[in-house]
């Protein structure tokens, strides 16, 4: 079943986070991910507001998890650590 990779982000260092974004996009695509939303308008109804929200669709939970643990994504993630506050989760789509 397909899955969604959902990230809620507050960027604290634009330059370092820009390096993350430059590397993360290709890593996500390489692992079968396709972006549905990157930033854009949102309405926060509950919980902590994060001004950047990203959603990518993957073929499966396993594909999304493999992407996260891959060397190329982890290399990207090194730039986001200390440059952002984030929550990231993977949710299976039950169609």
From TrEMBL:
Signal peptide: none annotated. This is Uncharacterized conserved protein, DUF1330 family. PANTHER family: BLR0684 PROTEIN, PTHR41521. Residues 2-92 form the DUF1330 domain. Transmembrane segments: none annotated. Gene3D superfamilies: 3.30.70.100.
């Amino acid at each position: 079943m397909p899955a969604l990779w959902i990230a809620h982000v507050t960027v604290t260092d634009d330059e370092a986070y820009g390096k993350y974004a430059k590397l993360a996009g290709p890593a996500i695509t390489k692992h079968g991910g396709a972006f549905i939303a990157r930033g854009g308008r949102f309405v926060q109804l509950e919980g902590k507001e994060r001004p950047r929200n990203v959603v990518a669709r993957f073929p499966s939970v396993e594909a999304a998890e493999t992407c996260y643990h891959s060397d190329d994504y982890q290399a990207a993630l090194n730039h986001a650590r200390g440059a952002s506050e984030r929550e990231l989760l993977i949710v299976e789509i039950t169609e």
